[in-house]
Write a structure and sequence with these properties.
The protein has 2 domains: 31 residues, no CATH class; 87 residues, Sandwich (Jelly Rolls). By secondary structure, it is mainly β. The chain is globular and about 50 Å long. This is Phosphohexomutase.
Length: 143
């Protein structure tokens, strides 16, 4: 089984280091300090379950599932099985391919998306044309 983690963040003026991959600080030659307790203290959890309004739609030969659509961002999962197209209306949209192989065509250019491919899409193109079989996530911030 393969697990892919996609971390989407909003801007914050405070950052706590919870894990650092055992990296060594080049100045002190020691592992960098972690701020685990401060990170835990900063977490705000709401009581009970939050209701996510997930929806699914078919766009040509792609199943698009909205996983999150509330501030501060929207996150969609695309499963392409043939041809489809997507639009990008936001100042930027993050695309992260996670499975298969999909050709992305725009402005006479072609990129092949395979697992791990990450792109920033911009609204200069009316459409991004897709063909192939694979999956990717799209995320964009709310205005």
């Amino acid at each position: 089984m393969r697990i892919t983690a996609l971390e989407i963040q909003e801007s914050a003026d405070t950052t706590y280091r919870l894990f650092d991959f055992n990296r060594i600080d080049p100045v002190t030659q020691n592992k960098r300090d972690l701020q685990v307790q401060q990170g835990i203290d900063a977490i705000t959890l709401t009581q009970g379950q939050q209701q996510l309004n997930q929806k699914q739609e078919l766009i040509e030969q792609a199943v698009v599932k909205t996983l999150v659509d509330q501030p501060p961002f929207t996150l969609n999962h695309w499963s392409v099985r043939g041809k489809s197209r997507l639009t990008c209306r936001q100042p930027f949209t993050l695309l992260v391919a996670v499975a298969g192989e999909i050709d992305l065509n725009f402005n006479g250019q072609r990129l092949t998306l395979t697992a791990g491919t990450t792109l920033l899409l911009t609204p200069e193109n009316d459409y991004y044309y897709l063909s192939g079989h694979g999956e990717f996530f799209l995320a964009w911030p709310h205005s």
